[in-house]
Amino acid sequence: MPLYEFECGNCGVFEALRPIALRDTAPNCPTCEEETQRIFSVPHFNLSSGSAFLKARQTDEPRLEKREKEPTQPSYQSHKRHRPWMVGH
C-alpha cells in the first residue's frame, strides 16, 4: 500500500497507508478525528540499498594502482612485401 500525506487543520501533517482505491478519500485525523486534505508531495526514493549508492561510495576516492614494470615500446614490423599499407594481410 502506498504512503500518502494528509493535513489536518488543527494537528498538522500526518502520513497514512491507504489502498490505491481509497486515494481520493481522505481519512479523519488520528488524534482529533477532524476532516483532512491530501497533500501532494515529491516522492521519496531510497537509494542506499541499490547499486547507485555502491557506485557513489566507490568513486569517493581515486584508486591507486601500482605498475610492476614500464610498458615496452611497440615493435615495428619491417615491410617485406611490395605494399606496405597492407601489413599483416
TrEMBL record:
<dbReference type="Pfam" id="PF09723">
    <property type="entry name" value="Zn_ribbon_8"/>
</dbReference>
<feature type="domain" description="Putative regulatory protein FmdB zinc ribbon">
    <location>
        <begin position="1"/>
        <end position="41"/>
    </location>
</feature>
<protein>
    <submittedName>
        <fullName>Regulatory protein, FmdB family</fullName>
    </submittedName>
</protein>
<dbReference type="InterPro" id="IPR013429">
    <property type="entry name" value="Regulatory_FmdB_Zinc_ribbon"/>
</dbReference>
<feature type="compositionally biased region" description="Basic residues">
    <location>
        <begin position="78"/>
        <end position="89"/>
    </location>
</feature>
<feature type="region of interest" description="Disordered">
    <location>
        <begin position="56"/>
        <end position="89"/>
    </location>
</feature>
<feature type="compositionally biased region" description="Basic and acidic residues">
    <location>
        <begin position="57"/>
        <end position="71"/>
    </location>
</feature>
